[in-house]
């Protein structure tokens, strides 16, 4: 009985620690300014005020950043899946000299300290004429997402049965046809997982987004949220920042709830064998 | 003869498939890295128009005497050790709790993914809002409601305290991820082991120390290395919460400041190379562990 109560208490504490910051952001997004700066604080946002949301969606900076983030994360995901699935197929399916070494280099690159190349990537992107563009961000996001994607996909391709592929060869299919018609459809679940991880990773990226953009033209959501400034310089517009946070969080919550199992599989693929 | 040509064909094809990835990674990884090494030997400025001068190892000599960099390394180490050990402890507790069957377990697992999926910038802002000294909810709870503290605390303005807050936010965001990794490991332990132990009269505690922990060791090790590497690179949460003020400057924020704020591309690149070397050591350790593991897996 006591054990049971302690167990429930433990879950409750963990739940509160996890959930309260979300609740507080939600509360803050629905308070009028007078209550945000009030002490003692108001714990229930009643009656709710939508002023902060109006402010956020009326801000061209924020709306533009949503578009930029969607474009950058979307393009990154597509590119990573195209290049990554090909590479994974090669590494998992063909006997190649230097395959283990290549895999180890790619695994090492998943740990790459991005800060170490921020200056050089800045120079590279500027030389390519892509400074302050979404395309420039996509270039830099390859470094963040591609090694991880190849690693996860290679493990996935390895787990596919060989029989179908062999019978395709017997029927005279070319290797690319085999990849395109047989292996790629079979690997759809792995592609969904990897695509989600790449998308979330690119959507959340801050270091390159901060270094490679300078105006609204290419700024992404994390940069916009971090830079959010109010009408007056001396007071932080917490209501608007929390409203923006809620707006950014909601789609992620939906994604996570829908693809829970897939995400966990992908995340643990590198660490747990099986 | 035919088998041989097939092998050759396979080899060519394999490389053809891998080439796009290698080209991309060479462009965005290896080339910038080589460039960083080269620029660290010059006095280049970011977006500078004047041609850079070769200065040899001058930047490294300066780095060796740079007390701010040394203290940023120390701060990063303190941050890494405290946050990673807290995350492992808490993560293990959560994983063990969630591993037992109870109603709502699926929902709990999904909820654990949400902090992980959130942009770090957003979570840092959420905590910034809670930690505001005058009207923040943390002070409101601790001072006004519960009376635990007598006066309101400027959480992010005091050295030590500010770093503690950043650790707390990192633990909040990353513990669920650690718990999920450990949970996946727990689920691989065959239940027959526990059944046999129970037959032999082993207590719950004995089962934990003799079965759970040894069986979980590889997963704990990989998670530990994985998290350590992440923590050593920490940038987002620090930059958003304190800008590296109040004794929270880490290696990455210091490097960023040199490169982007002061536009010292040459000196900043020397800092980059130092950070790269430090992290490479850990990566090598990680690869050795993974390799041994894969070999064990194949045999």
Give the topology.
The complex is a heterodimer of chains A (about 270) and B (about 300).
Chain A: H1 2-29, H2 33-36, H3 51-57, H4 60-93, H5 99-109, H6 118-127, H7 134-158, H8 163-170, H9 175-186, H10 188-204, H11 207-211, H12 221-227, H13 238-258, H14 260-269
Chain B: H1 2-39, H2 58-64, H3 67-99, H4 105-117, H5 120-131, H6 137-145, H7 161-186, H8 191-199, H9 204-232, H10 236-241, H11 251-261, H12 265-298
Number of strands of chain A: 0
- Tally of alpha and pi helices of chain B: 12
* H/I helix tally of chain A: 14
N-to-C span of chain A: 37 Å
Overall form of chain B? flat
Strand content of chain A: under 5%
Q: Give the class-level CATH name of the domain at 66-268 in chain B.
A: Mainly Alpha
Give the integer mean of the pLDDT values of chain A: 89
Helix fraction of chain B, binned, reads over 70%
What is the share of helical residues of chain A? over 70%
Annotated CATH architecture of the domain at 66-268 in chain B: Orthogonal Bundle
Describe the structure in your own words.
The complex is a heterodimer of chains A (274) and B (299). With 274 residues, chain A is mostly helical. Chain A has helices at residues 2-29, 33-36, 51-57, 60-93, 99-109, 118-127, 134-158, 163-170, 175-186, 188-204, 207-211, 221-227, 238-258, 260-269. Chain A is globular, with a radius of gyration of 23 Å. With 299 residues, chain B is mostly helical. Chain B has a domain at 66-268: MetI-like fold (Orthogonal Bundle), CATH 1.10.3720. Helices cover 76% and strands 0% of the residues of chain B. Chain B contains 12 helices and no strands. In chain B, helix 3 (67-99) packs across helix 7, helix 3 packs antiparallel against helix 9 and helix 7 (161-186) packs across helix 9. The mean pLDDT of chain B is 90. The interface between A and B is large, with 96 and 97 residues.
